[in-house]
Amino acid sequence: MRLAQSSGSFVRSVDFAGHTRLSASSILDITNSFCISNALSEGAHPTGTTQLTSINLTGCTAISTHALNDIIAHSPVLTNLNLKGLLSVTNSTLRTLAEHCPRLSSIDISRCRQMDVEGLIALLSSPKPLKELRASGLRRINNYVMDLIGSNAPDLEVLD
Q1: What does residue 46 show for φ and ψ, rounded to 5 degrees?
Q2: What does the pLDDT look like over 79-130, one tens digit per residue?
Q3: Contact partners, residue 110, CB within 8 Å, separation at least 6
Q4: Beta 54-56 vs 13-15: how paired, if at all?
Q5: Which of 5, 43, 59, 120 is the most buried (most CB within 10 A)?
């Protein structure tokens, strides 16, 4: 937390892989510290945006969907996101990504059991500069979804 508070909006990449005790409240505080505008609105939520381009939360099993969606919503220049195996990843998380992260080029949502293909459809609702999509274990993949991936992620190089 001290590092996040002192470095603030200069941080571009965070890798919390394996930090199983990283709590939802810690993620919310870190998001607040990383925001360019540190002004708080009612409820102590950050009002600005971060400069994060890369986030790795693999193994961070204690974070909530709300905290995850919050850091994503405040990271509009995000290009790389690794959420492999997190139970906090839901279809709403991918809707948040679709709405707030137009530059996303690499995402790993493999083995995220609380989401299904509806989340992926939401993410790909508009063309994305995706080069890497790792979604192994995703339920209900069909020809429609594969067509959507092909048409809305034309730069895709890695599909898992």
Answers
A1: -65, 145
A2: 999 999 999 999 999 999 999 999 999 999 999 999 999 999 999 998 889 9
A3: 84, 85, 134, 135, 136, 137, 160
A4: parallel
A5: 120
